[in-house]
Amino acid sequence: MKNIVIVLVFLAFSACGQESAKHYLEKGKQEFKKEFHKQNYDSAIFYLEKAVLAHPNSQEAHYYLGYGYDRKNSKDGKTMINTSLALTQKSSKEFEKVIEVNEEYTGEILILDPYSKITAIWGSLAMKYLYEGKIDSAKWTFQKGKELNGFSQPVLEYGRNLLNTCDSNSIVFTSGDNITIPLWYLQTVESMRKDVAIIDVSLLNTIWYVNFIQNQNNIPFTIAKSELDSVKYQDWEPKTQTIQVGKNKSFSWLLEPTYQDKYLLRGDVIMLDIIKSNKFEREIYFTKGMNPNNYLSLKEYIHSIGLVDRLQFNKYYSPNMSLTENLYKYDYSSLKSTKIPSVDIQRMVDNYRYEFAIAIAHYKDTKPSLAENLISHLKENIQESNYPASSIRLKLYLESIMK
Question: What is the pTM assigned to this prediction?
């Protein structure tokens, strides 16, 4: 009888603890649902630490607490160079705990999943060190992030394939921590394709980042260095832009406003300057998944050749052998040897699937044997059992063209 009473009391306390944890978790999450500039991370951390104490194995409580520490560490790209090692470690430990409880995170996702967040927070600290010229510290930081479940093999493999799609001495505009930061890792730790200039379009809105890239890979600017810091957003109406290429050739397009239908943001002004200053002397690429406004109204001139899209003179696009050759050239070995339950990796893998779909659909009627070979290559290298498609629409479309 006494044992039964003890068990009942324990269960009662356990249930009470979980209810308290749920209450504190919801209070902490409320801060992240406010307008970005109104979010109070000290308040979020206060409640989320209580949630973790009440329910130590709550994945979602640890996940949001990790986000709280991370946002306190660096709220956005403007403050990335103020990132501290201590808060990076505190944030990382929370995401590590999420994975320790269960490799597959089942809670609500704010932006990135736990694996991508570990990559992002250690990568941000590494960029701080790169900005400060502390290369050895940056390498240590990247490698530390890899030890702690960030920078997984599928992510780094994707980055290698992406960089190897780019021509020598080219410029690639990137967007998103889960794309940009692994490329920083590869260039810093593996010294891979350092000839390629990586430019994060979101960070162009900051002053420190533009100062950082000025001397990287001879990135072209017409705006004087002394004036770059003072570049601001501009009121903008649709206006034709022209790039003179040599003596007898020019490229023109109509540039629409990129923000609220009436502005160009600071980053857009700088990006436009880089594109115009380049004069098509170096190949320019864009990574997948960009906000449409990041293309500066050039979308019709940006054509896929694999994991990047290339800026070209030609407005009309038809898949060519460059895309097909790259799909055969890419290394998919980690997709066959690993099985990481990351929704962000699934979306990354879907970029491969999408490019296969473009090529297969294009050649299905005109070159059916080539289409069949592409289907076989897709099935052999990208298997649903390891990394299921995150897009149902893409999955159904692939099934329809593979019949």
Answer: 0.93
